[in-house]
Specification:
The complex is a heterodimer of chains A (217) and B (471). Chain A is an alpha/beta fold and 217 residues long. In chain A, 32% of the residues lie in helices and 26% in strands. The radius of gyration of chain A is 17 Å and the shape is globular. With 471 residues, chain B is an all-alpha fold. Chain B is globular, with a radius of gyration of 22 Å. The chains are: A alpha/beta (217), B mainly alpha (471). Chain A binds chain B through residues 48, 51-53, 77-80, 83-85, 87-91, 93-96, 104-109, 152, 156, and chain B through 216, 370, 372-373, 375-383, 386, 390-391, 394-395.
């Protein structure tokens, strides 16, 4: 089976500080992967490179057989990669309700208004966020905000969902159950998960392959 | 041949600026820290009073001191005139800037940092830590106030202390030699700019930390304690003595007689131009500051250097850009007269003068917007227009409204620029007060001052609340 995501000798540094050195990784469809490593080792940077929010100095990123990034050149813009992401701070837009957050997240899908509303409501319902869909993020608990962020990510039907330590604020038991639930959702939405975490327990909760990320010497 | 008057007045100017800075630090630094650390009765009023010197022209404080002395039938000596009088008048501004600088820095303390200080050594440790943290911001604020005082002619002329700016204005009024006034202003500008740049460079770093702090942890709750109540009393005393007492002097003649009919007609006559200049300046400053801050924010080197430039711009004598514009207008073709000699020109130069204020607020607002919002939009293919209309603008609007209001209030208080640039018959209210104060009856001047000070005080009461809502 060809890889859904392939990183080929990716190098990234900020100024004189190297963050990733010759990093390579291949992820098959349906194979969830946890990138585990200490703080500051470049895990979030790696996700940003995969999402196309940032570019490496050298190396290639191939998503679903298409070259998405080649060296410093971003060939596929973020929203055309079939990738969604749940950010560490969740990145919910605070002036919009949960439903509006999901709807605006569908802006790049070029759906009709009815289809977009249907897609948003379905994602909210499957992520168990429908009950508070008309509330703004500030009026939601941390767990509810995480469900809305998941709904926004799954609504675009991504092939690859990037999770940037979204559950670190929760205790380990709750984080584990949220991750297990996310894994089930990923199966039902046919998405592959790439999780970033500094906790090995998270990888166990997701029952996935662990790819270590180390601080370059 | 002796030295030009403004050169021989330089030591007096420096003495005045240094004394005003000292007063600002002694009074404003602890006052700002106390307002940041403690909750006490009268805190909101004290903050409003500490804001007044920023929102009112310095000459009002000088006239107020004069009227206070006359009202109390005291001789024309210290502390109401000469150096001490000027230090009092300018010290209101340095105290205000030092206090607000310190307050801004202290509000950056997170709840857990405050808890750590309390566990380490109780309230005394928290107080000492807050004082140390606020020192650079308070010093930068006081020094900035000192630089502004050095370039301000008003109180020196009114209270009999020869300053370089006062001598330049006097020479210009006597001979109307424009080129010479520009040369002299540039010479004074070079002195204040050198001082301002030194201040601005260190001040900008402190300001950047305070302005762009992105601490997502819970805010530090102000403490209620006996020590806090005592500190609060001291803050109220400082605010009343330094900021309110000179203004009370302005209103003293109202106890004897009032002339609100003429004052009101004067207000109506000057209302249009005042609103036009102040709102125009606010709009132009915001229109320039927001894109500039967007271009600079999160690019730390750019951010810092722009702050240095902005602080230096604020410290330059107000007369300098006004004279520069007059020179430009003289050289411009007649067809451009409506643009270069009209009300727009006044608003434009006021906006340039106050651009730093709008820029700092814009930078703070941009810094409060997480990068992940834009990243999420990019990842989901949200069009730029939709991002701007639905996410960025709603988030920025409260900041824009606050900056517009603050710049408008500060522009309304500016006299020098309006004096030099206003079209005939289009004076602002403070300029009208400044023009008539020497010859009009006391009752009229006092009535006019009340018409001006009362709404500004109301705005000052509302501004701290609006600012804290933006944290």
């Amino acid at each position: 089976m060809s890889a859904l995501l392939q990183l080929d000798r990716v190098n990234k540094s900020f100024g004189a500080t190297p963050v990733l050195r010759d990093f390579s990784l291949a992820v098959s469809p349906g194979e969830n992967v946890a990138l585990v490593g200490p703080s500051g080792c470049g895990k979030t940077t790696l996700l940003r490179l995969i999402a196309g929010l940032d570019a490496p100095q050298t190396g290639r990123i191939i998503i679903d057989g298409r070259t998405a990034t080649d060296g410093p050149r971003i060939i596929l813009p973020p929203h055309t990669r079939g990738v969604a992401m749940v950010f560490q701070d969740l990145a919910l837009w605070p002036n919009l309700t949960a439903r509006e957050n999901v709807l605006l997240g569908l802006a790049g899908q070029h759906l009709s208004r009815t289809d977009a509303q249907h897609r948003a409501d379905e994602a909210l319902a499957r992520c168990r966020a429908a009950d508070f869909a008309d509330r703004k993020p500030a009026a939601l608990s941390g767990g509810q905000q995480q469900r809305v962020a998941l709904a926004r990510a799954f609504a675009v039907r991504p092939r690859l969902l990037l999770l940037d330590e979204p559950f670190t604020a929760l205790d380990e038991t709750l984080a584990g159950s949220m991750l297990a639930e996310t894994a089930q959702l990923a199966i039902s939405f046919s998405a592959t998960l790439v999780l970033v975490s500094h906790r090995a327990d998270d990888a166990r909760a997701l029952s996935c392959r662990v790819a270590p990320v180390e601080i370059p010497a | 041949m002796g030295l030009p008057a403004e050169i021989s007045a330089l030591p007096a100017t420096l003495a005045l600026a240094a004394s005003a800075v000292a007063l600002g630090l002694v009074a404003g630094w602890p006052a700002g820290v106390a307002c940041g650390v403690f909750q006490f009765a009268g805190r909101r009023l004290a903050l409003a009073l500490l804001l007044l010197p920023l929102l009112l022209p310095s000459f009002l404080f000088a006239i107020g001191l004069s009227m206070l002395r006359l009202g109390l039938r005291l001789p024309d000596v210290a502390p109401f005139s000469g150096l001490t009088g000027c230090v009092w008048a300018h010290g209101a501004l340095t105290t205000s800037l030092a206090a607000w600088g310190a307050l801004l820095a202290v509000r950056g303390i997170s709840g857990s940092q405050a808890d750590a200080a309390l566990i380490a050594g109780g309230e005394a440790t928290l107080w000492r830590a807050a004082l140390r943290l606020a020192w650079p911001s308070a010093l930068a604020g006081a020094l900035l106030g000192g630089a502004i005082a050095a370039g301000d002619s008003g109180p020196g002329v009114l209270l009999g202390w020869p300053t370089a700016a006062g001598e330049i204005l006097a020479a210009f009024a006597a001979r109307y030699d424009f080129a010479e006034a520009v040369r002299r202003s540039l010479a004074l500008g070079a002195v204040t700019l050198a001082a301002a740049l030194a201040v601005a460079r260190s001040g900008a770093f402190a300001l950047e930390t305070a302005v762009t702090a992105r601490d997502p942890s819970r805010a530090f709750a102000r403490r209620v304690s006996p020590f806090g109540r005592t500190a609060g009393l001291a803050v109220c005393a400082i605010a009343l003595l330094i900021c309110l007492l000179p203004l009370a002097g302005l209103l003293l003649p109202l106890l004897r007689a009032t002339d609100f009919v003429r004052a009101w007609s004067e207000v109506i006559r000057t209302l249009g131009p005042t609103i036009c200049y102040s709102l125009g300046a606010g709009l132009i400053a915001c229109a320039a500051a927001w894109p500039l801050a967007a271009w600079a924010h999160r690019r730390y080197r750019r951010e810092r250097w722009l702050l240095v430039v902005m602080l230096a711009l604020l410290a330059l004598p107000a007369v300098l850009p006004a004279l520069g514009w007059v020179r430009l207008a003289n050289a411009a073709p007649a067809v451009l007269d409506p643009l270069v000699r009209g009300r727009f020109a006044v608003a434009l130069i006021l906006a340039l003068r106050l651009l730093p204020v709008a820029f700092v607020l814009a930078l703070r607002r941009w810094s409060a917007m997480p990068r992940s919002w834009r990243d999420a939009a990019a990842l989901h293919g949200v069009p730029r227009i939709a991002l701007l209309r639905r996410i960025v603008l709603p988030h920025q609007l409260p900041g824009i409204a606050l900056a517009l209001g603050l710049v408008a209030l500060l522009a309304a208080a500016e006299v020098t620029i309006v004096l030099l640039l206003h079209p005939p018959g289009a004076a602002s209210l403070p300029l009208a007060i400044f023009t008539i104060m020497a010859n009009a009856p006391e009752a009229l001047v006092a009535s006019l001052c009340l018409c001006y000070v009362a709404p500004v005080l109301l705005a000052a009461l509302a501004l701290p609340h609006a600012f804290s809502a933006l944290r």
